[in-house]
Write a structure and sequence with these properties.
The protein is α+β, with helices and mostly antiparallel strands. It is built from 15 helices and 31 strands.
């Protein structure tokens, strides 16, 4: 009896346990159902029917970061999305957005939201303060691959869709990755993007990047297995980025619009905005493998070609020609260059010695089906490729597969970097007669310019440069200088001015000369380093100044902001010039050459510089490597007049200066 009783008791106990487990499992299933149904409601399915098929599923992964904290750009674009969606049917267009990654209250971690939820949340003009938001994980890191994977997995399980559009919103760094979570400083690499797309188990009809510098062959190569079309910018993006209101109105009213045509609408609406310095492309990802194959063959031809001194010089010259993107002066060089113009330059410089370049250009034309750039950007071909400017062999190794395209091209590029580090040659001036020089250029790639300097207590600080023109004999002269250069000045307060270190960049299609200048910009809660682009129309003298903020991360990576800021009253700027080393074995440094408060009366001035000592010299060099200087010509300015003009038979950066103006 006892044994039977124990057995019966055990049976009753196990039954109770089983019932408890069933009850718990039921609760879990109910909870999961509530979760998924609520997500469906939040992200644009008003019926709350989980699994309702939609014609177009638009997913946006928006890392707000400092763009939201400093400029509220994320909030502005979400408001545009609400307006653009209008009265669209969720059966035609379902929108779900993952936003967060910012220190802004309500933007911590990640939140899933959609049109219905956003409308309620945005009613007071603030995004992220609606207490009804249920899917907010304040600990999530949007720069972590798992956060992206979870979002894509949720979307794939929730909405069957005829077409899927996936957009990434934040900072971009091309082959160096996308997005920066402001709280964690983590960034998604290209491999993170690839793995997240792979794990989602879905293919995306259009992948877009409302981010800087993502219109590169490295990005397109990484994503082509997972998408049909890509929309991205070769250059940094100004202002608020894409114009969501206009192109979403097109998608809402024409839910069957071909995806290539939608890409064209995104490009056109973006380009019609007033911000300057824009380029945007529609890229056919199905053509990318053929383009990569062409680059593989080209690399195999270029690899042995650059092993000869003449071949190395030819390719060095070719890399100097293309439009450059992501340029800054403090770290020197650019992130990427335009692929089309690189191919053209190689073809022209090599005089037909490299076969099949024309065929690769034809494939490129099929790959980039539509692209535009405004008059403030050098003509672009729609897709960029890594520049060797900021890359050395160690960095290239650290970037790994994210920087590599195909064995033939990778081998060529690695050899180019190795040869560049071994190259100790530099161009030199030889004096023919007084103030007449010729350039001895071992590689044939030297660039020669006139440089203008500020003397400051024995130091020589670069104010700026402009291209030097050789005479019919190929000789150069230091031009007579009347002491005029560019600076910012308050017309009503002559003491409120700042010298500008202006580095010549190019002549853009609109006819303006583009100079770049390094500044720090303080505006309300913004305090940032920035590249100041200065556009000067050669015919009218009209000018435009636009600052692109950036940060230098701990790994020395340049992170450009998506904001381009026109200087405005109340701004405090600090300007910088490059201080040349007094010893050729030392390195120079960026130092402050001016501070001023911007007012309504601040203008860019080209006039006689303030009283002091200045100088000019010719310089010739290879990109960012050391070159050679002529002797320098010193001038003194007092009361607006040039009072001293001496030629010193010394090289720039090592001369003795007069003690005072006469």
């Amino acid at each position: 009896m006892n044994l039977a009783g124990q057995g019966m008791g055990s049976t009753l106990h196990c039954s109770a346990c089983t019932a408890h487990k069933i009850e718990m499992n039921t609760r879990i299933l109910v909870l999961l159902c509530i979760v998924w149904c609520t997500v469906a409601i939040a992200c644009g399915d008003p019926s709350g029917t989980n699994g309702t098929e939609t014609k177009n599923l638009l997913l946006i992964y928006m890392i707000g970061g400092d763009l939201e904290t400093d400029y509220q750009t994320g909030t502005d674009n979400l408001q545009e999305i609400i307006r653009g969606y209008g009265n669209a049917s969720p059966q035609d267009l379902t929108v779900c957005i993952a936003y967060g990654g910012s220190k802004t209250p309500g933007w911590e971690g990640v939140t899933y939201a959609g049109i219905g939820e956003l409308r309620n949340d945005a009613a007071d003009g603030v995004i992220g303060n609606d207490p009804g938001v249920r899917y907010h994980d304040p600990k999530a890191d949007m720069g972590n691959r798992k956060t992206l994977e979870d979002f894509l997995s949720m979307a794939g399980k929730t909405w069957p869709a005829d077409r899927r559009i996936l957009l990434f919103w934040d900072h971009g760094s091309g082959y160096e990755g996308f997005g920066v979570d402001e709280r964690t400083d983590s960034q998604l690499t290209l491999d993170d993007l690839k793995q997240a797309l792979l794990s989602s188990g879905m293919r995306y009809d259009l992948i877009g990047f409302d981010a800087c510098l993502m219109g590169s062959i490295e990005v397109a190569s990484a994503l082509q297995p997972y998408g049909s079309w890509m929309v991205a910018s070769e250059e940094t993006e100004p202002g608020n980025g894409w114009n969501y209101t206009d192109w979403m109105e097109v998608l809402s009213s024409q839910p069957d619009i071909p995806l290539e045509d939608l890409g064209v609408s995104i490009v056109d609406s973006y380009m019609e905005q007033e911000d300057t310095g824009k380029t945007l492309s529609v890229i056919n990802l199905s053509k990318v493998p053929a383009l990569i194959s062409g680059l593989d063959a080209l690399g195999k031809n270029l690899d042995p070609f650059i092993s000869t001194p003449d071949g190395y010089r030819i390719i060095g010259r070719a890399y100097q020609v293309p439009a450059r993107y992501g340029t800054d002066n403090r770290e020197w060089g650019e992130t990427s260059i335009d692929l089309r113009s690189l191919l053209q330059a190689v073809q022209e410089q090599a005089s037909g010695e490299i076969p099949d370049i024309g065929q690769i250009t034809d494939i490129l034309n099929e790959t980039v089906t539509y692209h535009r750039n405004d008059e403030y950007i050098q003509d672009s071909g729609g897709i960029s490729i890594m520049s060797p400017s900021r890359i050395d062999p160690d960095i290239y190794t650290e970037l790994g597969d994210d920087a590599r395209l195909t064995p033939g091209w990778d081998s060529f590029f690695s050899r180019l970097l190795d040869l560049s580090t071994q190259d100790t040659e530099k161009p030199e001036f030889s004096s023919i007669q007084d103030n007449t020089y010729q350039v001895e250029d071992p590689t044939g790639t030297a660039q020669t310019s006139v440089e203008y300097y500020l003397y400051d207590e024995g130091d020589m600080i670069l104010l700026g440069d402009e291209p030097a023109a050789a005479d019919s004999n190929g000789s150069y002269q230091i031009p007579d200088w009347n002491g005029e250069w560019f600076y910012l000045q308050d017309n009503l307060d002559p003491e409120n001015y700042a010298l500008l270190g202006m580095s010549y960049d190019s002549v853009v299609p609109g006819g303006s000369m583009l100079f770049t200048s390094e500044i720090d910009l303080a505006r309300e809660k913004i305090d940032t380093a920035a590249v100041l682009d200065v556009y000067i129309n050669q015919d009218t003298g009209a000018n435009r100044l636009v600052a692109t903020p950036y940060t230098i991360r701990n790994d020395r990576e340049i992170q450009f902001s998506r904001q381009n800021l026109v200087l405005q009253p109340g701004d405090r700027i600090t300007t910088y010039g490059w201080e040349l080393p007094s010893d050729k074995n030392e390195e120079g440094d960026w130092i402050s050459i001016g501070e001023m408060n911007v007012s309504e009366d601040t203008k860019l001035i080209y006039d006689t510089l303030p009283d002091g000592f200045y100088a000019e010299a010719l310089y010739t060099g290879y990109d960012t490597k050391n070159g050679d200087y002529t002797g320098i010509r010193v001038i003194g300015i007092k009361n607006g007049e040039v009072t001293v003009q001496n030629d010193l038979n010394t090289t720039a950066g090592s001369q003795e200066l007069p003690d005072e103006l006469p």
